[in-house]
């Protein structure tokens, strides 16, 4: 009996030792092969094919730079940077961060989806089929909009370009790309910002969004604000935004918003016959109520998220009247020179260099215009 028990113990120990040996000597499962090179080749091949490009859009350049590859189950996700140029319009590339889904099929990788990276702005083709309208000076890309509306936008942009060139004699391409999304929310997605920032605005220029420099300027229409404008209002708004495209080369972080926004309105209203009080009704009410602003509009006053709905209008109107009064006293060319100088030096130095006066004198000129042009009749 004892011998039998010992034999059983020996057999049990042997079995345990064998199991332990097997467990201890097992080779870990090999990690999946690095898919990076194959994924990069697949993305490059896909981008070069018609399937990897948005249909109907005139492209001079289109490529993806894959920055990282992450395996995701049987597939992979590639983080990439899209670079593209619209033929005849973009001197430098536009683009954005993208996330591409890939699947492995028979040892070969293929792209199955392309979308904006988390937090990155969308592109027009992310929002549906793009309708393309070409003008003499403008390219309009619309999603979720009727073609007649896009053609009307192109016609206004074609009128705006020569008007802007007459106001801004500096070098600029003389052409513009306009994006017309289907809603305010779609507009915000194209710009990568909250929709509340653009509520009440009819259009913006990418060069003005976020205070940063965009590689290729786009005028982006807010269809909700656009629908509320008169035909002349639409002309003024689009000319204003095209002016931002034209003056981009001279605009820097030093340029005060009252000068950049006021100059754009000055270019849009230039040559028109609208009386100042009709062009600046919100500010006229303040002046006629004895509330003449002490200082030129600060940058913060050009935000659309304030509680006072008239505050934004007063900021733009005050900026326009400031530029109008500068041109009236010192001449159109002097206003253009001031704009160029203000992008490279402090405003007092720019005023001294181009207008041969000082900032208090400029402020006095503006105050005089406020009271003369917007004050009570006969005052």
Can you walk me through this structure?
The protein has 379 residues and is an alpha+beta fold. Helices cover 45% and strands 18% of the residues. The protein has 13 helices and 9 strands. The protein has helices at residues 2-25, 36-48, 147-167, 184-191, 223-227, 231-246, 257-269, 276-279, 281-288, 309-330, 332-342, 347-355, 359-374, and strands at 59-72, 75-86, 94-105, 108-116, 131-134, 138-142, 176-180, 203-205, 219-221. A 5-stranded mixed sheet has the order 5-6-7-9-8, with helices on both faces. Strands 1-2-3-4 form a 4-stranded antiparallel sheet. Helix 6 crosses helix 7 and helix 10 (309-330) packs across helix 11. The longest helix has 24 residues, at 2-25. The protein is elongated. The model is unreliable at 1-32 and 210-214 (pLDDT under 50).
Name the features.
single chain; 379 residues; alpha+beta; four-stranded antiparallel sheet; 13 helices; 9 strands; 45% helix; elongated; disordered N terminus
Secondary-structure topology with pairs:
Blueprint lengths: L1 H24 L10 H13 L10 E14 L2 E12 L7 E12 L2 E9 L14 E4 L3 E5 L4 H21 L8 E5 L3 H8 L11 E3 L13 E3 L1 H5 L3 H16 L10 H13 L6 H4 L1 H8 L20 H22 L1 H11 L4 H9 L3 H16 L5
Parallel strand pairs: 6-7, 7-9
Antiparallel strand pairs: 1-2, 2-3, 3-4, 5-6, 8-9
């Amino acid at each position: 009996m004892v011998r039998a028990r010992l034999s059983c113990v020996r057999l049990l120990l042997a079995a345990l030792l064998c199991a332990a040996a097997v467990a201890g000597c097992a080779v870990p499962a090999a990690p999946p092969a690095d898919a990076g090179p194959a994924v990069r080749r697949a993305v490059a091949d896909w981008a070069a094919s018609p399937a990897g490009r948005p249909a109907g859009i005139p492209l001079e350049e289109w490529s993806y730079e894959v920055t990282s590859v992450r395996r995701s189950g049987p597939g992979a996700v590639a983080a990439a940077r899209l670079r593209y140029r619209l033929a005849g319009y973009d001197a430098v590339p536009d683009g954005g961060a993208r996330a591409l889904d890939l699947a492995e099929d028979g040892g070969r990788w293929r792209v199955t989806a392309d979308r904006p990276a988390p937090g990155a702005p969308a592109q027009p083709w992310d929002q549906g089929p793009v309708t393309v309208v070409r003008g003499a000076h403008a390219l309009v890309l619309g999603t979720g909009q009727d073609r007649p509306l896009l053609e009307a936008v192109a016609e206004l942009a074609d009128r705006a370009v020569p008007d802007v060139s007459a106001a801004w004699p500096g070098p600029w391409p003389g052409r513009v790309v306009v994006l017309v999304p289907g809603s305010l929310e779609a507009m915000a997605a194209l710009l990568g910002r909250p929709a509340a920032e653009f509520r009440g605005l009819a259009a913006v220029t990418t060069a003005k969004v976020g205070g940063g420099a965009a590689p290729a300027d786009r005028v982006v229409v807010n269809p909700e604000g656009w629908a509320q404008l008169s035909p002349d209002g639409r002309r003024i708004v689009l000319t204003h935004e095209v002016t931002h495209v034209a003056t981009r080369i001279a605009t820097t972080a030093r340029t005060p918003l009252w000068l950049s926004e006021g100059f754009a309105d000055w270019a849009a209203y230039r040559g028109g016959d609208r009386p100042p009080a009709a062009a600046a009704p919100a500010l006229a009410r303040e002046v006629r109520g004895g509330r003449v602003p002490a200082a030129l509009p600060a940058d913060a006053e050009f935000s659309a998220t304030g509680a006072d709905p008239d505050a934004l209008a007063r900021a733009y109107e005050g900026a326009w009247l400031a530029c109008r009064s500068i041109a009236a006293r010192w001449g159109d060319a002097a206003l253009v020179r001031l704009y160029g100088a203000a992008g490279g030096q402090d405003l007092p130095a720019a005023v001294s260099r181009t207008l041969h006066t000082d900032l208090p004198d400029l402020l006095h000129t503006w105050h005089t215009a406020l009271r003369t042009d917007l004050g009570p009749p006969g005052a």
